Q: What sequence folds into this?
């Protein structure tokens, strides 16, 4: 049974804030900074905590997706078809219970975009959705197209060509959206690799 392992990440077991959040001491008369400088200093520290929070939430979102993928892999493994019907029902109920528990966790990170960035992201998603349509009918073409999209996300081209239309749309997206798009494409490439391994098995 092949199940993708779930890597343990630091954010899965540690708190976002390793030190207390800053507070302004109104009674501190020995601070040589002006009130404005003191407030800005506090805001700088808080901004770094906000970025850590967003990064941690993003990792939690990725961990959740990996768990859902692994549960799906277990539910669809060939070994389940070899079980007796009663055992298969027990396994499916167990998997459904774990899946339901996982789906109770919701992580939502909002990305601020202007109208042009919204349109750029829409174009990128439209191109990727079009690529997915070819997965079952022409997997080789879909993988080649996926590689050309991935090359648009990288500073150097490792294989094949770069899709200029995709690259143009991607450059109009926010940095956060560009990172998510790259992860989505990497997930598709991993899927193509698994698909090829299955078809190669005699």
A:
């Amino acid at each position: 049974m092949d199940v993708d392992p779930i890597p343990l990440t630091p954010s899965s077991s540690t708190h976002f804030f390793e030190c207390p959040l800053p507070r302004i001491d109104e009674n501190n008369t020995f601070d040589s900074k002006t009130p404005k400088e003191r407030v800005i200093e506090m805001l700088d520290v808080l901004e770094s905590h906000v970025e850590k929070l967003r990064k941690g939430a993003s990792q939690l979102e990725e961990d959740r997706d990996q768990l859902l993928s692994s549960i799906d892999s277990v539910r669809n493994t060939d070994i389940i078809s070899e079980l007796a019907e009663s055992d298969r029902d027990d396994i499916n109920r167990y998997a459904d219970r774990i899946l339901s528990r996982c789906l109770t966790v919701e992580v939502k990170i909002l990305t601020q975009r202007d109208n042009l960035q919204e349109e750029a992201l829409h174009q990128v998603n439209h191109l990727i959705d079009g690529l997915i349509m070819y997965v079952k009918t022409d997997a080789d073409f879909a993988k080649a197209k996926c590689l050309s999209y991935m090359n648009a996300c990288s500073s150097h081209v490792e294989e094949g060509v770069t899709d200029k239309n995709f690259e143009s749309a991607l450059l109009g997206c926010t940095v956060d959206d560009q990172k998510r798009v790259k992860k989505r494409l990497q997930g598709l490439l991993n899927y193509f690799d698994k698909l090829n391994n299955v078809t190669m098995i005699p």
